[in-house]
């Protein structure tokens, strides 16, 4: 439509118009002629320090790159995220970034974006494999690998535990990619290593401190803590909430029960320095600048990998203190 309106008013103006459309086929793709993009970002929510750091990283990187970022906080609610994506489609943004709260239920809205000619890039979390053709690429963590890292430490730490390792698990948001994959990767390694273990209980704490604490209180009421060897919490907040519940029950977290967390926030590392937990699998939220590169490539029509993992480490008790000052969130 834009090109049509410009037709007949001179080749120079037409070229300018095409540049504004990124040389696309008349859709809204391409960004401004200064290379700036209008980006619609449907974020999960603000449930954790990780999430806040991730939002900040993406907002700052967009600003630094001169892009216009339309940011919507989905409040951990898929319906809100779907509404945000539809709104971005109506606004004809250049590219949509979606951090899907859960893996399923995206087919229709992703199809709508494709029909509108607007590319979708997943940031952080993934969607089910059936929807793979409906997004361009995902930039984020390898959650299964994070689970395997946690499992590797647990299998080594409890290898000599002859009467079996009794495990509690605090899962992330039900149906989310990190909850599904951190669980799968963890138990994959325990099984592969032949650890003798029992899952005493496993419930979702929705990635928040409040729910993590509440679920841990229920675990303690139901099973007690005597004879429980390990708590595997899928993120820092749930682990920190659980630590409070354990202390309130008169036990010593990190000693009476060993604890693994995933993320590695300042508060998580501080708890490690204080001896309250035993292993941290890092999940890196600071991929804003990398995301801007990906978005620019996608809008330019360059080939991009279907998945770009961010780099992440692991830390045990001997490393907590030295690493604490390096934490960015
Ligand atoms: O681990 C957790 C957050 O999707 C990787 O979401 C992210 C997870 C992160 O709530 O703290």
What can you see in these coordinates?
This protein has a six-stranded parallel beta sheet with strand order 2-1-3-4-5-11, sandwiched between helices. Strands 7-6-8-9-10-12 form a six-stranded mixed beta sheet, sandwiched between helices. It is built from twelve helices and twelve strands. Helices cover 42% and strands 18% of the residues. Helix 10 links the parallel strand 9 (258-263) and strand 10. The protein folds into two domains: 2-139 and 285-309, Response regulator (Rossmann fold); 143-283, Rossmann fold (3-Layer(aba) Sandwich), CATH 3.40.50. Helix 3 packs across helix 11 (288-300), helix 6 (143-157) packs parallel to helix 7 and helix 8 packs across helix 9. The structure holds beta-D-fucofuranose.
Task: Briefly say what this structure is.
42% of the residues lie in helices and 18% in strands. It is α/β, with parallel strands linked by helices.
The helical percent reads 40-55%
C-alpha termini separation:
45 Å
Element-level helix/strand string: HHEHEHEHEEHEHEHEHEHEHEEH
Beta-strand residue fraction: 15-25%
Uncertain runs are 1-29
Number of strands: 12
CATH class of the largest domain: Alpha Beta
CATH H-level superfamily of the largest domain: Response regulator
Give the overall form.
Answer: elongated
Q: What is the tally of helical segments?
A: 12
Compute the average pLDDT: 91
CATH architecture of the largest domain: 3-Layer(aba) Sandwich
The figure for the number of domains is 2
Main β-sheet description: 6 strands, parallel
């Amino acid at each position: 439509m834009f090109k049509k309106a410009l037709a007949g008013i001179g080749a120079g103006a037409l070229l300018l118009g095409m540049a504004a459309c990124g040389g696309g086929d008349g859709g809204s793709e391409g960004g401004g002629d200064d290379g700036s993009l209008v980006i619609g970002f449907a974020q999960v929510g603000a449930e954790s320090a990780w999430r806040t750091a991730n939002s900040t990283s993406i907002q700052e990187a967009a600003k630094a790159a001169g892009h216009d970022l339309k940011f919507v906080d989905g409040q951990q609610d898929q319906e809100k995220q779907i509404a945000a994506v539809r709104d971005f489609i109506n606004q004809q943004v250049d590219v949509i970034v979606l951090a899907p709260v859960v893996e399923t239920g995206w087919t229709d809205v992703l199809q709508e974006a494709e029909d509108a000619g607007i590319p979708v890039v997943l940031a952080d979390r993934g969607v089910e494999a059936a929807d793979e053709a409906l997004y361009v690429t995902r930039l984020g963590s390898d959650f299964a690998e994070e689970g395997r890292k946690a499992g590797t430490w647990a299998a080594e730490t409890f290898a000599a535990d002859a009467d079996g390792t009794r495990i509690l698990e605090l899962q992330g948001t039900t149906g989310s990619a990190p909850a599904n994959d951190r669980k799968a990767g963890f138990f994959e390694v325990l099984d592969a290593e032949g650890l003798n273990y029992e899952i005493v209980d496993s419930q979702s704490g929705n990635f928040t401190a409040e729910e993590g604490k509440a679920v841990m209180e229920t675990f303690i009421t139901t099973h007690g803590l005597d004879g429980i060897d390990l708590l595997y919490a899928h993120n820092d907040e749930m682990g920190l909430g659980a630590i409070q519940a354990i202390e309130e029950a008169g036990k010593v977290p990190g000693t009476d029960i060993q604890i693994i967390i995933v993320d590695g926030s300042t508060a998580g590392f501080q708890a490690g320095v204080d001896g309250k937990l035993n292993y941290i699998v890092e999940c890196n939220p600071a991929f804003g600048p990398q995301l801007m590169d990906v978005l620019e490539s996608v809008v330019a029509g360059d080939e991009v990998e279907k998945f770009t993992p961010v780099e992440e480490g692991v830390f045990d008790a001997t490393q907590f203190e030295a690493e604490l000052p390096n934490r960015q969130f």
